[in-house]
Amino acid sequence: MICSMYSCTEDPLYHPVVIKPDQQFWKRILIVDDNKDVTTTFKVGIEASNINTNRKIKVYTCNNPVIALSEFKPNFYDLLLTDIDMPHMNGFELSEKILAIDINVKVCYMSSAEINREALREIYPALSLGCFIGKPVTIDYLVKRIMSELD
Q: In the structure, what pLDDT confidence band is assigned to residue 92 with cuts at 50, 70 and 90?
C-alpha cells in the first residue's frame, strides 16, 4: 500500500510476509534435566548462539521427566536432549516412551557419569546411543553437537 497525503493505492510489488511466532525458528529442542541450573544455562547458551544465524533453535525445558512425557507434543520437537540420571524416570525410559509417541524425534543423552554402552545395550536393546554428551560441557561444544545432530 502506497499512501500519500491525498490517497492510498496498492503497490503491486508489496507482498506482506506474516511470520508466525514459531516459524522464525529452524528447529525446536526439548531439554529435560532435573537440575534447573543445567536447563536454564543450556537454554540461555543455545538461544544466545542464535544471533547472526538464520538457523535459529527454539529451546523448551522441563525439570521433571514425568511432566515432560505427559506434556510431550508429537511432531513438534526435532531433538530431545535428556539427562540420564533423574528421579522418577531415567533418560532412557523417557526416550523410549517419547519415541513410542514420535518416532521422528532425535535423541541426545547427557550424563556426568561414565556410561557402559555394552551394558546399556543389554538393558535397552532398541535404543540408539549415537549421541552422548558428557557433563560438564562447554556451551560451544553443546551447540556444535546439537547442530550436527539436527543437520
A: very high
**In a domain? residue 62:** yes
pLDDT in tens, 8-60: 445 455 444 444 554 588 999 999 999 999 999 999 999 999 887 888 999 99
Asked whether 65 and 91 are in contact (CB, 8 A), the reply is yes
Instruction: Please give the DSSP secondary-structure letter assigned to residue 48.
Output: H
Residue 13 lies in a domain: no
Residue for cell digits 540461555? 44
**Residue 55 backbone phi and psi in degrees, to 5:** -105, 75
- Residue 12 domain flag: no
CATH of the domain at 136: 3.40.50.2300
- Single-letter amino acid, residue 6: Y
User: Are 100 and 74 spatial neighbours (Cβ–Cβ below 8 Å)?
Assistant: no
User: Structural domain tally of the chain?
Assistant: 1
